[in-house]
Structure formats: C-alpha cells, structure tokens
Please model this.
Amino acid sequence: MLPSPSFQASVVSPNCRLYSVLQTAPHGTMDEVFGEVLEDRIADSTPLKDVTYATLFTYLHRRFGYPSRGSDPYKDLSAAWLLSTPEPDIVIHVIPSVSGNNFTFTIYTTTERSPFSPEPISRDEQLRIAGAYRSLLLDLLRPVCIQDAHINALGEVEDDELLAYDEKEGEPLYEVKYAASSGYPILPGLVGTRTWEELLGQASFFGSDRLDGLTAIVTEGRNRILAQIPNEPVDVQVLIGMYTTLSRPNAPAIEIDFAPEVPERIAALQAVLWKDARPTSEDLATVNDAAVERAETYLDALAVPDDLGKAARRVRATARLHEVYEAICDACGRDFPDEVFDEKRVLWNDDDVQRAITRMKEGGHDALAETVEGLFSTDPWPTTRCLHALQAQAFEHRKNADPGPTPG
Model:
C-alpha cells in the first residue's frame, strides 16, 4: 500500500468547533465500517495496524513539528497533532498512545453534530469519512529524512517503492520535507507555566487566532526595538547596520533611522571584511567587545542572522596582519632580500620560518631576522601570511629578471 500521489497531509487549526464522528452517531451504527468499541477496522486494514507509539511520535515530531493540540498531561505521552485529510470537513486527531490505535487516532468533523441527540450517518457518508481517514493513515507512510536515512510512522524506511524518484518531475514521489521547527529549541521552563498560558491568552486576544495574535505581539515589540536603536552609541548602530541593511531571500533590508555617519562607516567595515582593505583606527574602535555584544542582542531580537563575533575577530586580525607587514618592511628598509627564500614554494611551518630567519642572518640582515623571529613568536599566523606574500613577490621578481632563452 502506498500514499495517494494527490494528497499530502498537513497540520490544521480549524477556526470552529470539532465533533467526534464516532461519538456523535447512534451506538452501533458505525460498527460495520469502523469496527466495534476498542476496534479500528480502517487502521487494521493498513500497514498502520503495526504502528507503535515510539515510531509514530518520532515521525510526527520530525515531519510536522511540535504538537499543537492540548491533551491530558498525566494520561497522554504528549500533546496531539490535528492533521488534514482529502475531505476538507474531516480531520484526524493523532496522539501516540501506549494503549493502541483506538486511542491514537480520532476522527473529527467540522460539521455540527449533537452528542445528546445523535443522528444516524448514511452508509455512503460513512464510507466517505472512512476513505478520508484511510488516506491520512497511508499518508503517514511517506518518508521523511534524518540525515541520510528515512523514517515513516512505522520506523526506518527500506521500501524502494516509498523511496522512488520521479525522473520526469525531478523530485521524490512520496518523500516529504522535515518540519521547519526541526532543530529549534523550546525555552526550558516556559511551556506549562502561567507565563505560557498568559502568552497564549494574549495571542488569542490580539489576533483572529493565536498565530495572528503572536504576530501582532512580536510586531509591537519589533517596532519598539527599532525605535530604540537610534539612541544607541554609533559603534552599536554601525554593527547592527552591517546586517540589517543587507537584503536576503525572504528577508528584505530593515529601515532604521541611523545616525548620519553610520552608512559611510558601514561601507568602510564591509570593505575590510569583503575586500581585505586595511582597517582604520575607527574601524578597530567600532568592533569593541561591548558594542559587539550589544549589537548581537539587537540582531537576535530582530531574528537577523549574523556572524558578528567572527567578523569582529577578522577585522582585528586584518589590522594586525597589516601591522606585522609594516614592521617587517620597516626592518628591511622597504627592500626585502628575495634571496632568503627557497626556489620552491613552502607551507611556512616552523622549520620553513626558521630556515628563512637563518638565511637572513647569514646575509647580514640581522635587524630583519630579529624582527621576524620576534613577530613569529607572538603572532605566528600574520607573520607566515606576510612571508608567504613576500615569497610570492620574490618569485615574481625572479621571473621578470629571467625572461628565458632568446629566440633564434
């Protein structure tokens, strides 16, 4: 049995009351299609008859993300997922249960029904509902990846049919993408507290639904944050602007009322990071630890991805690289002796550096040797970078000095 190629389940949040199909029908009138009490003929007719709560929970969490329907914290393993079916008015409540399928899957309808005066459901309607339920169960066989492996509600997928690839469409036939929430943490101590309940209550109050309300709350907070940024020191504004002025896919640049000098200073820092320009003293002052930490706080609050700590270290490293190069050039009177380098390129490990220092001394360049030796002991990375660049320069000098054999 395979999932329907024309249907793919999703998490739903109907903005209306839900009614249990089996509990709002006269007793016994659904048994022929759905089974008697504690029986699930629909699930038992599919591979899902063998599902376990462990594999089902793992799969639901990986494919659909965090559960969104409340449950009994004492009796139930977790909260529940409410999933769509091919029939818009039929949804399936799924909660992995140690007690079997009858407690795991519940069929709901958005069509108003009364449990106090249940009306019979026609056989054709029962079959329509059963077909929707069955389609959802088979859809839980769709593979979802975890690194290089695939799982579905039954565990690891090894069935080649489920892993089939549609060459014409250039995509898998049945595989679905893992939930966008995969890998995202939940703040410890938040869910299940009064703060959490108040947050959800306020979300319902401020929006047409909780998600809409949360968006309104976040938008209000975002506007307050943006209004506060112009009051920060210019260094902090520059570091924030390094990232908020960039346009990314699905994330346009953010308009902020920066101080007048901020755009020019942003451009200068970007030249250092992207074009290896030499940092000025102002650039170095901008990437101070306090400013970096403060700017990161704002960027986190605005959900703007950044590598600010790494960028600050690079600015400082680039500045030190230029300082080391200047010190070496000053020590040799701006005329570096090319003869200290080997005829072949080297990796500039410890032995390579010591060999170059020895040749400097042998050539009478004691001040240069002393400078390089001292710099290498305190700043090995920029020193080897400089020696590498000077060696490349020496090779170019040798190449220009030796034009090769004369024709004829």
Remarks:
- The first strand starts at residue 19 and ends at 20.
